[in-house]
Amino acid sequence: MQSAAAIGLVRPCAARPILKNPSPAGARLPAARLSAAAPRAGLVAAAGPGRIGLVPASPEQKRSDRLVAAAVASGKAEEAGEEGGAALAKTLVREAVSQCFKCERNQDRPLGALRIAYSQGSLQRHGSKNLLTPAAAVSVEQIEVSTYLPKGDMWSVHKFGGTCMGTPQRIQNVADVVLGDSSERKLIIVSAMSKVTDMMYSLVHKAQSRDDSYTEALDKVFEKHMSAAKDLLDGEDLARFLSQLHSDISNLRAMLRAIYIAGHATESFSEFVVGHGELWSSQMLCYAIQKSGASCSWMDTREVLVVKPSGPDMVDPEYVESEKRLQKWFSRQPAEIIVATGFIASTPENIPTTLKRDGSDFSAAIIGSLVRAHQVTIWTDVDGVFSADPRKVSEAVILSTLSYQEAWEMSYFGANVLHPRTIIPVMKDNIPIVIRNMFNLSAPGTVICKLPANEDADLDACVKSFATIDKLALVNVEGTGMAGVPGTANAIFSAVKDVGANVIMISQASSEHSICFAVPEKEVAAVSGALHARFREALAAGRLSKVEVIQGCSILAAVGLRMASTPGVSAILFDALAKANINVRAIAQGCSEYNITVVLKQEDCVRALKAAHSRFFLSKTTLAVGIIGPGLIGATLLNQLREQVAVLKENMNIDVRVIGITGASRMLLSDTGVDLTSWKENLQQETKPADLANFVRHLSENHVFPNKVLVDCTADANVASHYYDWLKKGIHVITPNKKANSGPLDQYLELRTLQRASYTHYFYEATVGAGLPIISTLRGLLETGDQILHIEGIFSGTLSYIFNNFEGTRSFSDVVSEAKEAGYTEPDPRDDLSGTDVARKVIILARESGLRLELSDIPVESLVPEALKSCSLPDEFMEKLPSFDQDWARQRHDAEAAGEVLRYVGVVDVRNKKGRVQLKRYKRDHPFAQLSGSDNIIAFTTSRYKEEQPLIVRGPGAGAEVTAGGVFCDILRLASYLGAPS
């Protein structure tokens, strides 16, 4: 039967001492029966002319009713003494929570109908067991007035999280949003104010730990809500709320005292305590909405939602019973707006419980399903669902649409905008969920719904998002005795189940030779112990070879509904991981292909996430660049990058970030990118001393960007000696420095072997021909099956300039001096005239062609007169060089007499496995005689390009602009290899 107030016999109005009976004809109760029932119901019967009513019991009497179970439990425990009474107190606590919740459900709350409460005399003792039991139920006859619960699109459901309810102003903002919704009916689910649930859990923990500070912590909870109420409410509303708050805090104080004495709290008791945060926040919101004059009722969802435990920290809704209770509740309190508590519910036995941590989303979805709402809106503090964790991937984007399955997968893998089970209730009724930002109302949010009939509509990527789970361990059970043996997997996972471990992922090869699975790190010790105990005999007999634990793992999951119908998704994912130098330990993918899951080292997780996210064009291909040597070429490259980075980002989806520049004396470092408009000034003002090891560490340990590249713009052999170590660390290397590729053959071969064995790239186009595509042309010929026979060319821009201008009556020394002044030569021209630089380029091309030659195997014709090699200074050399002009004039005259010109060339004779550098004469109609300025020219004679018509590459081969341009091209080539659009 319903209470008197439910049918209008008693009005829930504290202002009236005697409550009139305004019910319809025939709904009156006999005064005698009402008077008889009233004392045990906590009310005082009163009669007057023409009316029958009830006077509410005093506040003290009501408080006594609500506190009696916990207070008596506390008192009995104290009487027995802390040691002797602990067991008794635990039993009394279990009984108390049941009784107190019944009191709470039936008490006169300021927002609901007046309920009949237990009086002090309604609790009796069992003489034998000294336990508290309720007396016989007391009811008041009444005539039910049934109001039909409407269902369908007229309802909109809103859920507001703790951050949305965090302050009085935010609660008022929530009220404004609710009032601004034009839906015919609205059901509002709210969480506790931010941090309150944590505070309530802490109260229980402190009390059962017998930490006296629980009383101070409870005072802070009280002060937080009292302060919020005073800022938000006024008048009678404030008085009612504070009265209820005082009452609840008194209840909690007594309950926590009982826990303190017992040193123990049952799960149901803890959940009863922590659920108060939602009670208080929802009441304040209801009052705030009522201030506007809107029709608004308050719902304690423990009276409506019924759930039953289905596993650790998991409950299943009882939809049929919950729907009955919702209909019953609505028949008593129909309203256009209902504000309900999130997170809390009841068991079928009416014991208070919760939907577990972050369960308010689940509450909203369940209630949305019960009323068949047209939409459930989850209000939070983010603009929607991101394609990846924005704390790890700054370029993560907001997804406009997700399917139910995609959202389900994402919530399982840790997307923090949804409770993992929120999808289930709404999916069966095709109710959309919208994720909105309470603090950015202009953001449209993310719609989670059934996949549209047109798969291309709003689902523009086969992979919609990436998620990670950290702090995992991989357990590998391996042995030949597992193959074909039924029940092995069952035995493994039964042992895991027995220790209560949660298996995150399972992977098994079709050979059945091994099974591996991921569990949380904190549970792996128990799992390992259980497996060793379970398979002790099999391990001893050799049927199982090992039970291996791999610590420090993470899971990366790619989620997308359309992956199943898109070929090559797995290939793209693993290619991206390989190119980021990420090693995959295990893989799992169901036949539905909603997600692809990989296990990798935790230290690689963020880099893997960024690389995969970037590869699927959800963000830009980002390169973190470290520049070594900001000299002529390095400075020119930095200036070129400054002019082009915006264009690359806009047009090619490539984001180049220079995060470090180091010179000989100081270095400039940045975690997110150096300002390229002022890098030179900032470097000059920098006080951090240059340290190559620290510079490389800064780059390698940067987890903001997945792809790192070092650009060596020096000619330093010491810097080049570190390339191998950098490549092993997963850092790409780009350089115009010839020292590594022309150094000792064994070191070169090690470098190239490492490069080919990994996805770490080593580009050096500018080592030969500056910006000309010499290396790439040679590789293209070889990779397409052509056979290199002979390479010959003018490889030095300096010497090309000198011999192109050494004609007529000009002296050789004048031309060299002119080249030096124009900046074509090194500070000491002998470095160019010696031919060593050309020899290094010859050895590079010879090795690229497959010849295993040392630099010492290349005969070099030096242009430095023997007598001048010992000059101590460049100036001394230049002063003495004119004394050899006659010799040079004679060679020129002899060549001109034969219709030829002098050219300084390098030759790679692949057929004879030789190379040389020499001064040669060519006919004036030869391509080598047609050069001007500092041009280079290289002729490739192959099995396809015959000697009479070789493949020729010609163009500027010297100067900072073209050399830096060649390095820049290598940077873009690297970006293309890493997934940037071509």
Account of the protein in words:
The protein is α/β, with parallel strands linked by helices. It is built from 33 helices and 33 strands. The strands form 8 sheets. It has an 8-stranded mixed sheet with strand order 7-10-6-5-13-15-16-14, sandwiched between helices. Helix 6 runs antiparallel to helix 7 (235-262) and helix 17 crosses helix 18. The radius of gyration is 41 Å and the shape is elongated. The relative contact order is 0.06. Mean pLDDT is 83; it is low at 1-85, 104-145 and 453-460.
Describe the protein's topology.
Blueprint: H1 31-37, E1 43-48, E2 51-56, H2 59-80, H3 86-106, E3 123-125, E4 132-134, E5 155-160, H4 168-180, E6 185-190, H5 196-208, H6 214-232, H7 235-262, H8 267-274, H9 276-290, E7 296-299, E8 307-311, E9 314-317, H10 319-332, E10 337-341, E11 344-346, E12 352-354, H11 360-370, E13 375-380, E14 401-403, H12 404-412, H13 423-427, E15 433-437, E16 446-449, E17 465-478, H14 488-498, E18 505-508, E19 514-520, H15 521-534, H16 536-541, E20 546-559, H17 569-579, E21 584-589, E22 595-601, H18 605-615, E23 621-628, H19 632-651, E24 654-662, E25 667-669, H20 679-685, H21 692-700, E26 707-712, H22 717-720, H23 723-728, E27 732-734, H24 739-742, H25 745-757, E28 762-763, H26 774-783, E29 788-794, H27 797-805, H28 812-821, H29 830-833, H30 836-848, H31 874-880, H32 885-897, E30 900-909, E31 914-923, E32 935-942, E33 951-956, H33 960-977
Parallel strand pairs: 5-6, 5-13, 6-10, 7-10, 13-15, 14-16, 23-24, 23-26, 26-27, 27-28
Antiparallel strand pairs: 1-2, 3-4, 8-9, 11-12, 15-16, 17-19, 17-20, 18-19, 20-22, 21-22, 24-25, 29-30, 29-32, 30-31, 32-33
Helix pairs in contact: 2-3, 2-7, 3-7, 4-6, 4-9, 5-6, 5-7, 6-7, 7-9, 14-15, 17-18, 19-33, 27-28
